[in-house]
Amino acid sequence: MQPSELVMNPKQVFLSVLVFGVAGLLLFMYLQVCIEEQHPGRVEKRREQRATSGWGPVNYLQSIPRIKPQVPHAQ
């Protein structure tokens, strides 16, 4: 067997990464559903705590007024 036969070409690498990525995502979603079915009340409690804690969503795109340094003008 030649060393060049052991190396995967870019198309095979892309397809294998894509397949394993999709499989991993599906496994993660399946396990998340299984865990939520075993513990049904926890997610709702966390959502209620966030809603009543006073910490709201932050809009990072909104401009906030900045403090401008006051430089004395020399005359």
UniProtKB/TrEMBL annotation:
Keywords for the protein's UniProt record, in alphabetical order: Membrane, Transmembrane, Transmembrane helix
Transmembrane portions of the chain: 12-31
Record's keyword annotation contains Transmembrane helix: yes
Protein name: Carbohydrate sulfotransferase 9
Species the sequence originates in: Moschus moschiferus (Siberian musk deer)
